[in-house]
Amino acid sequence: MTQCSAHTRGSTVFSRKFRFCGSLLYAYITAFVHGIATIMEQEVFKLKQQLVEREREISVLKDTLAQLQTSNISIELQEEVTALAPLKEKVMLSNEDVMRYSRQLVLPEFGVKGQLKLSQASVLVVGCGGLGCPLAQYLAAAGIGRLGLLDYDEVELSNLHRQVLHGEQTRGQPKALSAAQAIRRLNPAVECIPYHLRLSHENALQLIQQYPPYCSDNVPTRYLVNDACVLAGKPLVSASALRMEGQLTVYNYEGGPCYRCLYPVPPPPETVTNCSDGGVLGVVPGIMGCFQALEVLKIASGQASSCSQQLLTFDAQDVRFRSIRLRPRQAGCAVCGEKPTVTALKDYETFCGTSATDKCRRLCLLSKEQRISVQEYKEILGGGTPHLLLDVRPLVEVDICHLPFSLSIPLASLEDRKTEDVQLLKERIVETKQQLKSESCVPVYAICKTGNDSQKAVQILQQMAGSELEPISAKDVKGGLMAWAQKIDPSFPQY
Ligand SMILES: [Zn+2]
């Protein structure tokens, strides 16, 4: 029993010892295996980390290479419309994209989806002026895929107060090229195509089919771009700015009206004022161009535009915005209606009775005999014949420069027959008649900045002659004071 029990006890001790050793060994093995597993896991983790790091480095190298390659390509000025290759598809953003666009990527309305859509969008900016500059600038900064920049003018000193992409160093260069260079400096990832050509009924459709266009300035260009957009099925984000006012609307979008639905007939040319004649405070087109960029970004990134069938007006004097509901798409519209009569583009300068340019709009209200050139006026001055030179520009322009012997009565005062101005004119005509010492009519020459308002003034003077005024012979000076500065007196300021 005892033995047995001793044995039993002994064997129990042994077996306990064995079990103890066994579990220790097991623990060792487990710990060993576990240790190996942990080491391997760590190794895998490390390798994965290194891989991610290398991938990031490769991506940075690729971006840098692409940027260098893009910035090394000299910007080629296009003088005709050519077919464009489709934009390279982008399925994900690079780390640099994420960093560059981070402030807009975090917007829930925009996000990565919006950014990728934007990188696939092509936009044509028609006119690289006061509206086109901020528009192109903000679209490029936001990461638009392709930017077509169209303008037929060169950079002039008088552009620089509002056309903020151009500078002293690009004076005399085509605006499209100057704008493209500035855009390249801002965001080399944007594909910039500068077009130095005049948009016409011959090239507009081919060009606009490749882009949705977003800006236009003068009346014939507005009709041309509108019709081309309707025919090509593209939206048109249109803005304008004059003096201290701006307007913005989106045409031909989401069932909304086109420009022709609202303005079926072009306005008479003499009722249209442009920035060159009417002036504009530089920041006004800047603000409107930014609003244009905003609507383009919304449309291009897949959000709804709030300006379809709405006209946004901006009064810079009172800093007041208004939104006016526009009439809907018209079934009888000549281009977007049910039975369109405009099915191809035509000559829009003839249709509108004015040229498609923003600076040298020339009215023709008088006959040849009712007009004299600056050279002829210089001869009259030299000959000493008594006459009256009537400067019909607004007083603010007379303050900039004037001929010292001229009488200043603004066109608006003549139109309103302002009593004191009519009285002053009467007196001066009588004085001149006395100097004439003959019974012939007093010659009155109306002059303005470029020779448009002076023609209107002559028409008014002719109505007044013989009744409200003594009989006079009224003529206007062709080309106005700017022609005087260019052809007769180079020291006379041009503005
Ligand atoms: Zn229409």
Describe the protein:
- This protein is of the alpha/beta class and 495 residues long.
- The chain has three domains: 1-73; 75-352, NAD(P)-binding Rossmann-like Domain (Rossmann fold, 3-Layer(aba) Sandwich); 368-487, Oxidized Rhodanese, domain 1 (3-Layer(aba) Sandwich), CATH 3.40.250.
- The protein contains 18 helices and twelve strands.
- The protein has helices at residues 2-72, 95-100, 102-105, 111-119, 132-142, 175-186, 204-208, 219-232, 259-262, 275-278, 283-300, 348-352, 374-383, 395-400, 411-415, 419-436, 453-464, 480-487; strands at residues 122-126, 146-150, 191-195, 236-242, 245-251, 310-315, 320-325, 371-372, 388-391, 407-408, 442-447, 472-477.
- The strands form three sheets. It has a five-stranded parallel beta sheet.
- β6 (310-315) and β7 (320-325) form a beta hairpin.
- α5 packs parallel to α6 and α5 (132-142) crosses α11 (283-300).
- The longest helix is centred in the N-terminal third of the chain and has 71 residues, at 2-72.
- The relative contact order is 0.08.
- Residues 1-6 have low confidence and may be disordered.
Using only CA atoms, what is the Rg?
Answer: 37 Å
The CATH superfamily of the largest domain appears as NAD(P)-binding Rossmann-like Domain
Shape: elongated
Q: How much helical structure, as a percent, in the residues?
A: 40-55%
The structural class is alpha/beta
Q: What value does the average pLDDT take?
A: 88
Q: What is the domain tally?
A: 3
* Bound ligands, named by name, code or SMILES: zinc ion
Order of helix and strand elements from N to C terminus: HHHHEHEHEHHEEHHHEEHEHEHEHHEHEH
The low-confidence parts are 1-6
Pathway: Cofactor biosynthesis; molybdopterin biosynthesis; tRNA modification; 5-methoxycarbonylmethyl-2-thiouridine-tRNA biosynthesis
Subcellular location: Cytoplasm, Cytosol
Domain Rhodanese: 383-493
Main location: cytoplasm
